[in-house]
Design brief:
- By secondary structure, this protein is an alpha+beta fold.
- Among the domains are: 180 residues, no CATH class; 112 residues; 175 residues, Rossmann fold (3-Layer(aba) Sandwich).
- 21% of the residues lie in helices and 33% in strands.
- Strands 6-5-10-3-2-13-16-15 form an eight-stranded mixed beta sheet.
- The N terminus and C terminus are likely disordered.
């Protein structure tokens, strides 16, 4: 490498020594030293292998009353010249009861069988080796699934369908359907050598910041509410909403959102008169009968009936919270802490890799103490790992004030892999306190957010946009000031029930119905009675069982009951293989044809299509969730693969280079017109986008934003340039968003290495796909400035 000034010689030698040490460390590294960690995708040099086999995800949702039935279609296509095995990690609702899967290859459709996890994996591996097309669906978390599709031959199009159902539970009279689209990167300090198969999914590739999902996304919702609909809104995506009568509507995704698979799809609706559907659902099966009752809680009590409270705020300031999530958290906390009563006390604990506490004991909510707390929170920028468990232990161990009801509030994106340990810790330590969990971000880990609130007998909230924070903070304050129902009991008079869930009903803080599942025998008759305490009064509500009709469309109740039972068995603690609860989960999964952490779906084609097997394994890369910083990807050594292409100018193989976190050490500066620059002063150069021109159907602003997300890497490519210059490139993009060709318009370089490095990076960028099958052309002009000479 060439360094022409004394300053640059020193800089370049330091860079080289640092990289050499990192490479040597990696080459000697074993799984015992390396932790599980997501990493940024580096496209293989093998042009014959399709690195992005997932082409589309299509979702059809049918909502009938309070039950949603979801049909997912994933289309895989092999555009390369080698047989593939595709591995795709994707999310679903935390309440999803996954009850079916099938695979279609041409004219053949194979319905999947439910097996124990080990048996399904064995059948999958055997079919793969025999050369049969086969798909396997496994659960790693109740909201994280993995699809394996093996022996996808060149030109193959394989469609895999997944079916699940879930119950929609209103909060303050608002129903919400959420379809999670992408699994956010999870921090883990677990050794790769000690990780079990249920944890290795954490090692998943992600696209660089600004790159859209490499597959199209579409969703359609059919809503049959059973009662007049007051209004519907989609807060996450641009949609078209059509009403067909008073109680039926459709919600369709706008064509501009076909790359919108980087954030949760959220649809909210309210029924006429702000009412909640209450009553009884019955289903009579062949061998078992099921019921579900939803009861409207009473009105909230007066604020003067509520004793003084102590609030403990636990705030995630780790790397994944950098930027948008932490900004939203700050706004939320300013609203919450600023609204405390003078009679309240509070404390704040900040955590990332370690933790710090505002005070060793909770402070009175005076103006001075609140101002100090907000100043401390406002100074946070986000960085480091996400050590949630030590932070929870420290917060829960703080001394409590006598005569006060303690409330714990945690704000995080939930990008950790210790969900069950967290639930168990909360359940065993909270005592009389309640926990409210706030998920911050466009695609949060709802499993841990909802699980922590459930374990802590509180309520979960998710804030996806800055403008939502004030309204959600107001809702939270209203809940705490006006609890609804405590000491709840449910009894059955003349209605022969068994296997009722939940065994005890938690306190109701919100305008959320009391929900009870179960089975029944004999004739559906008698009374279901709910009693509790509201304020200083006794509340009673009754439902006449004989007045409810048995409907075939209520067949989903058996899946919902079994899913709820499984959640109660497994949510709060890690189970051993010999634990009796593990055996019960397996039995429930097999009996009710449900996906669980111990049961999986496998679909095997009868035809041998690739004698001898031998497919290439490709992990489907995921887009970074909208608003999530690259700091979220980088908990371990593999994160450095993001900058491997830039190191080609040093003649080091991309597979060997690990320039740890070089990409994320420098935050880009974005000006108002969307241009981007960086501050790689150690490289001696500075690069920015001067001009972007687009022909065809690509959006110019989107193209500029995506290229800006890769500018720091291109800056590293140009590290050896001796003079300031303008670099122009022409890029040809196909209908799928792939860069087919890149040409430098002029010869700028003393040798080809820097130019080839930038061209290679540009070829790896993925743009949104379009229905226009014609190639598009992008003309890009970059400005490179020599910081050494200018300084």
């Amino acid at each position: 490498m060439k360094c022409c000034t004394v300053t640059r010689v020193v800089v370049c030698m330091a860079m080289w020594l640092s990289m050499a040490a990192t490479i040597q460390a990696y080459q000697g590294e074993s799984d015992n030293d390396r932790t599980l960690s997501p990493y940024f995708l580096v496209i293989s040099d093998d042009a014959d292998t399709d690195q992005l086999p997932l082409k589309s995800t299509l979702v059809d949702v049918d909502i009938s009353g309070v039950i949603a039935d979801v049909h997912i279609r994933q289309v895989y296509e092999n555009r390369g010249e080698k047989p593939l095995e595709a591995i795709y990690v994707f999310p679903a609702s935390i309440r999803a009861a996954v009850y079916g899967m099938k695979m279609t290859i041409g004219e053949r459709t194979i319905v999947a069988d439910i097996r124990t996890r080990e048996a399904a994996r064995q059948e999958y591996e055997q079919a793969k080796q025999e050369g049969r097309s086969v798909s396997l669906l496994e659960q790693h978390r109740p909201n994280v699934f993995q699809m394996n599709v093996a022996n996808i031959l060149p030109s193959d199009v394989i469609e895999v369908e997944v079916l699940y159902t879930e119950l929609l539970i209103p909060l303050d009279s608002v129903y919400e359907f959420v379809y999670p689209t992408v699994v956010g990167p999870r921090y883990s300090n677990q050794s790769a050598a000690q990780a079990g198969p249920e944890d290795r999914w954490v090692e998943n590739p992600y696209l660089n910041e600004g790159e859209p999902a490499p597959y199209t996304f579409d969703i359609r919702v059919n809503l049959s509410a059973g009662m007049p609909i007051q209004d519907i809104v989609c807060t996450s995506h641009t949609t078209t909403i059509n009403y067909e009568g008073k109680s039926f509507a459709t919600v369709e995704l706008d064509e501009s959102e076909n790359a919108g698979g980087n954030r949760d799809f959220i649809c909210k609706y309210r029924l006429s008169g702000s009412s909640i559907q209450t009553g009884l659902l019955l289903y009579e099966g062949v061998e078992e009968n099921f019921f579900l009752t939803m009861m409207q809680p009473p009105q909230k009590v007066r604020a003067d009936q509520i004793p003084p409270r102590e609030y403990i705020f636990i705030v995630d300031v780790s790397g994944s919270m950098h930027g948008f999530p932490l900004d939203v958290t700050k706004a939320l906390l300013k609203d919450l802490i600023g609204g405390l009563r003078v009679s309240d006390t509070f404390n704040v604990l900040l955590f990332s890799g370690g933790s710090s506490v505002l005070a060793e004991q909770s402070l009175p909510a005076t103006k001075q103490n609140i101002t100090h707390a907000l100043e401390v929170i406002d100074r946070q920028r986000g960085g480091g790992g996400t050590e949630l468990l030590p932070a929870l232990k420290r917060a829960l161990g703080l001394p409590s004030a006598e005569g006060r009801s303690r409330t714990v509030i945690i704000a995080t994106d939930g990008y950790v892999s210790v969900e069950k340990e967290s639930f168990d810790l909360i359940r065993n330590n909270l005592g009389e306190a309640n926990m409210f969990a706030f998920g911050i971000g466009s695609s949060v880990n709802r499993y841990i957010i909802e699980g922590m609130a459930r374990a802590g007998m509180g309520e979960p909230f998710v804030v996806t946009k800055p403008e939502e924070a004030p309204g959600i903070a107001a809702t939270f304050r209203k809940l705490l000031a006006n609890p609804v129902l405590t000491d709840i009991t449910v009894s059955f008079d003349g209605f022969d029930t068994y296997d009722v869930e939940p065994l005890s009903v938690p306190d109701v803080f919100a305008d959320r119905p009391v929900i009870v599942f179960g089975k029944w025998r004999g004739v559906p008759q008698g009374i279901i009675r709910v009693q509790g305490i509201t304020g200083h009064e006794v509340f009673t509500k009754e439902i006449d069982v004989s007045a409810s009709a048995m409907l075939e469309e209520n067949s989903a109740l058996m899946y919902l009951w079994a899913r709820h039972r499984i959640a109660m068995l497994s949510d709060y603690t890690r189970l051993g293989p010999d634990d009796e609860r593990t055996s019960e989960i397996i039995s429930l999964g097999l009996m009710y044809h449900l996906l669980t952490e111990y049961t999986s779906f496998v679909a095997i084609d009868s035809q041998v299509r690739l004698p001898g097997g031998g497919s290439v394994t490709v992990k489907q890369p995921l887009p970074l969730p909208q608003g999530v910083s690259p700091y979220a990807v980088g908990g371990g050594m593999r994160s450095a693969k993001m900058c491997a292409p830039a190191m080609q100018l040093y003649s080091v193989a991309a597979d060997e280079v690990l320039c740890k976190e070089a990409r994320i050490e420098h935050e880009r500066k974005k000006d108002k017109d969307g241009s981007a620059s960086s501050d790689n002063t150690a490289l001696g150069i500075h690069m920015e986008i001067k001009e972007v021109n687009v022909t065809g159907s690509l959006d110019k602003d989107t193209v500029r934003r995506i290229i800006a997300g890769n500018i720091t890497l291109m800056e590293q490519c140009a590290a050896d340039m001796q003079d300031s210059a303008e670099l122009s490139f022409t890029m040809v993009v196909d209908a799928g968003g792939r860069v087919k060709e890149v040409k430098a318009d002029k010869e700028y370089f003393m040798d080809k290495q820097p130019g080839d490095c930038i061209i290679k990076l540009l070829k790896q960028i993925r743009f949104p796909s379009s229905k226009d099958t014609r190639d598009k052309e992008i003309r890009l002009v970059l400005v490179v400035k020599d910081n050494v000479k200018q300084g």
